Each structure stands twice: as structure tokens, then as C-alpha cells.
Amino acid sequence: MMGIPEMKLLARAHARVNGAIASADTRSDAHKIVDALIAERGQKIMEASWWPLAKPVVESVLRYPEAVRMAETIAPMQAEAVFEHLSGRLKLDVRTLNSERLPTSGKIVIVSNHPTGIADGVALWDAVKGRRRDLSIFANRDAIRLNPRLADIIVPVEWRSAFKTREKTRETIRLSGRAFEQERAVVLFPSGRLAYWNDDEKRLCERPWMSSAIALARRYEAPIVPIHMGARNSGLFHFLARVSTELRDMTVFYELLNKTGQRFSIHFGKPIAPDALEGRDLQELTERMRAHCFETLAQDPDADFPG
């Protein structure tokens, strides 16, 4: 049985070990944020007994070290420099059609289907930067966690239901209002989630859209430029989607980094005047806009919006 002196020695030893462990954490802030973002997407998996054995393999497959280096590189950059860096790194093969339909100035709402994730925003940047660089993109708040300066371009939206607050909602509303006051090009991917593979139809399918895009266009009397974006995620992403939503979501950085040189086809539809959106049911208009962007413009870029 240990006496008090031995117990004090043991306590001091534990303190030294814990202090050494704490001081040994030499990860950069960006590195810690990448770890947090992945952990938030894979909470149950990381609590599993087999995770310590699988972790090195999973991190290697998902290009985790490369994701950390990328995050550390962009962490100190200004917002526009981040997009230019990602553009130069990925070198996407962006093919545009009818990009002249995007006005070079004035408030506008750009809506698009959402086939791949973060890379969709980079592809859109590449597609429009020759005409407009004053973008305000509604995107996951996680981007701001990596680099707060991205708030100059990104309107942050909280995707984690447990972390949604009135304050964050008010911030999103305030920043969107400011974007329209400044007559910027406001970009939304109204599904808020990535397209999924439909086994029965043997194709990608766009998820249901939220009504926020049309609601904003109505409120601020802004025209809408509808876009169809053609691209897809890897087979690994769609395989993991069948196995585990957490494993699927943990590919967030992998599905950005693996897009190097990938083709993105972007069809600009005809602008839709604000008055064409008035006097109609919001949900019905939203569903028509989803079908117009995802299906119609893919086949007929000159089609009129059937409002």
C-alpha cells in the first residue's frame, strides 16, 4: 500500500507526463481545424474500438496529410487569393456555355445544382471571374473556421444542427443583406447537400432544394441566373455513401483534392426577371427551378424557365 509521499510522487509524475503530452502537440491551428472538421463528420467511427488500427489507412487513402498542408497554405491568405490558389492547384477543366448571360454588374442571384462539394465553388469562380469577381457565395461555415478572411466572399451557413443559433442565423441574414446592398453576385447551391447516385436510374440525382434562393431574389428584387453544373464525385464517395454516411462525409477534403484536371461543364441559362417570380407558390417555384437547373439546362441551355 502506498503512503502519502509515494502518492505525491506519483501525482507529480502524472503531471509531468500530462504536461509533456500537452506540450508535444505541435500542430498548427489549421491542422487542428482540419482534425476537428473530420472528427465532427466521423464521431461514431472515431469512437469505435477498431478506429486506432484503421486510422492510418483511412488517412492515407483520404489524402489527409495533403489536406493539412493545403489548409496551412491558405490559412493566412486573403479571400480572393484563396480561390486563386485553389484554382491554380486544381487546374479544373471548366467548359462554359453562354457565360455572357451573366451581367457584369448589378445585383444578381446565381443558382446551381451541387454535384461535388467544395470544388463546385472553385469551378464557378473559374467560370465567372472574367466577368465578375464580386461574389458572395452561401457556403458551409467551416470555410470561415479555416480562414476568417474568407468572409469577404463567403456568406457562412451553419450545417451542424446542434450548433445552429439565432446569432449565427442573424449573421447569415445580415451578410446576405449587405451583399445585395453592395449589388454583388450572390451564389447559392440551394440543395445544401451533394448529389447522390441513384441505382435505379443509373445517374446522379440532385437533392431537394431549399427555398432561400428564390425568397432572396424576391425580397431584394434581383434577377436570377440559373446554372447547370456537370461534374461528379469519385466512385469511392458513392460507395462509402452506401456503407456509412460518416465515412462519406469524411471524404470532404479528398473530394476536393482529387478533382485535379477534372472537367466541369457549366451552362448559363437565360436570366429570370424578378417579376417572373411574383405571385407564385414559393415551394412550387423552387422545385421548378431545381428541375430547370439540374435537368432542363443540361439538355437545352436555351430553354426558358417555366415559371
Describe this structure in words.
With 307 residues, this protein is α/β, with parallel strands linked by helices. The chain is built from 14 helices and nine strands. It has a domain at 91-232 and 262-299: Glycerol-3-phosphate (1)-acyltransferase, CATH 3.40.1130. The protein has helices at residues 4-23, 29-41, 43-47, 51-61, 64-74, 79-90, 118-128, 142-146, 166-181, 212-220, 235-243, 245-249, 254-257, 282-299, and strands spanning 93-97, 108-112, 135-140, 154-157, 185-188, 196-198, 203-205, 224-230, 263-268. The chain has a seven-stranded mixed beta sheet with strand order 1-9-8-2-5-3-4, sandwiched between helices. Strands 6-7 form a two-stranded antiparallel ribbon. A hairpin with a 4-residue loop joins strand 6 (196-198) and strand 7. Helix 2 crosses helix 5. The radius of gyration is 23 Å and the shape is globular. Pfam families: Acyltransferase (PF01553). It comes from Salinarimonas ramus. Residues 108-232 form the Phospholipid/glycerol acyltransferase domain.
Element layout with pairings:
Layout: H1 4-23, H2 29-41, H3 43-47, H4 51-61, H5 64-74, H6 79-90, E1 93-97, E2 108-112, H7 118-128, E3 135-140, H8 142-146, E4 154-157, H9 166-181, E5 185-188, E6 196-198, E7 203-205, H10 212-220, E8 224-230, H11 235-243, H12 245-249, H13 254-257, E9 263-268, H14 282-299
* Rg, alpha carbons: 23 Å
CATH superfamily of the domain at 91-232 and 262-299: Glycerol-3-phosphate (1)-acyltransferase
User: What is the terminal-to-terminal distance?
Assistant: 82 Å
**DSSP strand tally:** 9
- Lateral arrangement of strands in the main beta sheet: 1-9-8-2-5-3-4
One letter per element, helices H and strands E, the order comes to HHHHHHEEHEHEHEEEHEHHHEH
Quaternary arrangement of the chains shown?
Answer: single chain
| Shape designation | globular
Poorly predicted runs are 5-11, 13-17, 19-23
Mean pLDDT value: 89
Structural class: alpha/beta
Q: Can you identify the CATH class of the domain at 91-232 and 262-299?
A: Alpha Beta
**Strand residues, percent:** 5-15%
> What is the CATH third-level topology name of the domain at 91-232 and 262-299?
Glycerol-3-phosphate (1)-acyltransferase
Largest sheet: 7 strands, mixed
Provide the CATH architecture of the domain at 91-232 and 262-299. Answer: 3-Layer(aba) Sandwich
Portion of residues within helices = 40-55%
What is the helix tally?
Answer: 14
